């Protein structure tokens, strides 16, 4: 029973300037909701000395400045932050979602040069490429966390019908925007990087844009849907971006 | 006012005190490996502590100054010289126009910092000047310096005028002038060889058998040449988990000591990824990160266990020293 998870709570230090609040020990939606609720609470209620926080699958890591707290006369900065967070937990411990999650549609041009592994993913799962696209676009995916690279989303919710192991030999270069599958995960490469995911398509959207206020297109807590577009639409969207 | 890069050195990048607030978007902090040294370099010449300065690694660059320029070099002793004459570290230095700053053999430490009056003129990206090499943004064109690059400086905002005037008087026909004073060595790190690095237990410490825990605090570990700004790869007695446990990715930080499956430690440094999935056996204390950043590849370190309370105290004391130095320098400038 997933609800048992609600009792799980651990708080521990990560060195002298960070503290971790852990809400569970495996990936599931109940834990995810608690993580996002707490992250949302911190966003709305920052405390003196808070530098930033990072939500992950089961944890929220809070970075703080012990010097800022000591200037306030706090002899033991860790103990003080602990109290602040325990209070915060009391005020946001409800299991139901307390934040509004955005839904972001990611247009994807599947197959061809943009998705060289679409045929392999189809064969591996005894489906046609069209069926793979249909399964991939009918899912709704939650953004568990952003990590690995700037703007890179860890997505949950892939239908196991199209799960496919990583490539045996990783590619040296994967273009930004590539949409891939690795085991039971699906994701989008946010910057050009080497990698071993099976590539099924590419989005014209920039997942990482350092020149805007929120450089990562996706944020932990968002929901993602994929929509198939044609190569022509892909190029049009790309051009629009350049004009923008 | 511009500075021409005649030789780029091994890895010379524009850095500052780091890019905060974007780790939840997967954007690493970056910034100087030795934060204390870069801050003092800036303070010495009246800059903001957060101004953009140059981090140079082991083999420094050769830089040509087209106009008179106030600089300070701190951090590692990489044998700096101006027009062939040795220069002292940790003090305001006026470089005469048409002079060349070069570096020689690394004597002590790994990374030196060069601050210029006003700071280097590079665009602020996401609240920071730091070079983010992997994403190709920040600093100077998002990359390390190359031969032929021209660096420019901002107009000084602080009050380095007095240094400048005093040094102008002494420079005469020389190539450069340095102040006769420098801050008390108690106020900055000394980078002793054979470093002992203090650490606190990490979140996954208890997953290791007592033998591995003991090795961590008693064995010495070599910083291998595969170490870089992302992380230090150590070589020593391999440590192992009691049982193999699959870890879920979670946030990590500068100084996190991870243990991958083969058992050789990795210490995450300034350019570490924001999240990681290896067991975290320990965490280097903030007050010892500067010392760690200056250990040369091939050298050994030992870890000494300390408590969280002590670690925070040392962190606070370090900040107090920098604060003291800041006040002393302001006094110097105004009197």
What can you tell me about this protein's structure?
The complex is a heterodimer of chains A (244) and B (335). Chain A is an alpha+beta fold. Chain A has helices at 29-44, 66-71, 77-91, 118-124, 129-138, 231-243, and strands spanning 10-13, 18-22, 50-55, 59-64, 103-110, 141-146, 153-156, 171-174, 178-182, 185-188, 193-195, 198-202, 223-228. Chain A folds into two domains: 2-91, Gyrase A, domain 2 (2-Layer Sandwich); 103-243, Cyclophilin. In chain A, helix 4 (118-124) crosses helix 5. In chain A, 44% of the residues are buried. The model of chain A has no long low-confidence stretch (mean pLDDT 92). In chain B, strand 14 and strand 15 (231-235) form a beta hairpin. Chain B has five helices and 21 strands. Chain B is elongated. Chain B has two domains: 2-187, no CATH class; 196-316, Beta Barrel (Cyclophilin). In chain B, the strands form four sheets. In chain B, strands 13-20-17-18-15-14-21 form a seven-stranded mixed barrel. By secondary structure, chain B is α+β, with helices and mostly antiparallel strands. At the A-B interface, strand 3, strand 4 and helix 2 of A face strand 16, strand 20 and helix 5 of B.
- What is the mean pLDDT of chain B? 92
What would you call the shape of chain B?
A: elongated
Number of helices of chain A: 6
Mean pLDDT of chain A: 92
Element string of chain B (H = helix, E = strand):
EEHEEEEEEEEEHEEHEEEEEEEHEH
Quaternary structure of the protein: heterodimer
| Tally of individual helices of chain B | 5
Strand content of chain B: 25-35%
The total number of structural domains of chain A is 2
The N- to C-terminal Cα distance of chain A equals 49 Å
Bulk shape of chain A: elongated
Largest sheet of chain A: 7 strands, mixed
Encode the helix/strand succession of chain A as letters. Answer: EEHEEHHEHHEEEEEEEEH
Unreliably modeled segments of chain A: none
Structural class of chain B comes to alpha+beta
CATH architecture of the largest domain in chain A: Beta Barrel
- Content-based structural category of chain A: alpha+beta
